[in-house]
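Protocol step 4 of 5: obtain the predicted structure for the target chain.
Materials: sequence only (see below). No template structures provided, no constraints applied. The aim of this step is simply to have a reference model before the mutagenesis design in step 5. Sequence pasted as it appears in the construct record:
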Amino acid sequence: MQCPRCLNTDPSYFYHGSKGWYCRRCVSFGRVMLEEELEPVSLEEIRDDGQEYTLKYPLTPAQIKVSHECAERIEDTDILLKCVCGSGKTEMVLETIALMLGKHKKVCFAIARRQVVLELAERLSGIFSHAHVVPVCHGYTTVTDGDLIVCTTHGTIRFRGDSAFYNMELMKFLEDEKITYYIRAKGFESLHSEAMDDMISRGIDWKNYTPFHPYHGEFLYAIKGKQPRRILYKAYSVMKDGQISFFPVIYAIVTNDMDISPEEGMHFYELRGASENFTKELKNDFDGGHVSHKDFWKNEMDFLISAYAYNVFHLFQNMILEGKDRMITMNTFRLIFQ
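Step 4 output (structure tokens):
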């Protein structure tokens, strides 16, 4: 079994949904069925002379050394340049950008602020005069393909939030900034009614679905009578006193992602809970929630030791343990195997 997109072969990432098997390792880019043939993506060809660049001033010997090391190591590892403002970080990565463009690979230069994106895109266009440099940020989303793509960092991430973030002003802000969001929905009674009507109109009998195999659906809902937004939900029956409950359990989120399927959207949101569980396990099982010293650096070392121990145990869970044992916490492991 192999994913046709990311080439994953780890069986733990494969899931059999209502339409067949798909890979969860790359599901954030959209669901791809294993038997599905991917259509080739039509992207702009990188120009043969795109890697040529000119600087109007020379680099210092120290900058040249860093520039060469970045270009040499980028193929094998991630690189962090820890430099003060104005030290020439952009200039020191030009050689690396040129190297990638010379290999006909596209380069993404991500920055936090929109205005800096526009300024840097103009600057890089002058340096890489033969390359197609494209700014991608709020107000500049018509053209998103080029040789060197300069974009805002929040354009590369997705926002997940619990019901405390269910706020019209926040959603409008995220939409204006082109940030994709997945937020736990409030308004249970009205959303419950809408979800029930949606299932009835589709002929779905929710009593046939369980917590392990829920029904996933969607509908558009005008929150507080304003702009309709996409609601994803899952519904399932539960047993109470030996009988199926009269109404289904319905769990919903609101999102501006119009491409993701209801099942994938709910799964992506629920991964947020997994992250919280990792944090809780670090705090409860490895004492990561306590500080023992007055000195900051000593506390930092304590926390790093706890985090290192947790990561070693996490590797042990996934590489050595099998079956249900992979799900147990460190405290449970101690009780069982000590």
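Step 4 remarks: Residues 1-42 form one domain. The mean pLDDT is 85.
Proceed to step 5.
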